Amino acid sequence: MAPKKKTKKSTKKIQEQKVVDNDLEAKYRRSVLDVAILQDHIALQSQSIQMVQSDRTDLRSHMRELEQKLEKEREDHRDVFSEQSRRYKTMETELTGKVRSLELEVTQLNEELARCQEDLRREKDERQQMRQEKDTTLAELRHKLYNMETDYEKVLHDTLDSLTSQLSVARQGWEDKSTTLHHSYKGLLSNPVPNAPDI
Description:
Layout: H1 8-72, H2 78-190
């Protein structure tokens, strides 16, 4: 039996499904790219914090050396010491503010990364659900097709059986008529016709 031709509706549904699949795939690629960019940004911020903390440690170490020198020359260099202390406090305040700012930025980026990962997980779940629905629909259509093939096969067999029995009945009727005609002609041929001229 020839398969059914696709209707315009099923073609349209397939095209819509392809568009939805392409959109989901594009969203998925964008999400993966966003996650990679955020991870790179976090790595750079972490390196910056480490550099700032290293600089802070170096500055403290440097200030300790300066303080030791100043202790030796306290009487002669009081003005220099107070200036260095003021600078140290200013740098420490600036670096502390910068560290807090970077820590806040890292926290925000981590939250954004978590949101992106949640969006990615949700999109994966939606895609999986759509795939399952598509597989279910395909299975139902295959089942319907199998049932239709079985029904058509049954109708065809029933029709052929009916036709065969009708042909058998007709053949039996023809054979009976043929036998009757044969006997009738045989009887006529075996009995000579009266007053028939001799040849």
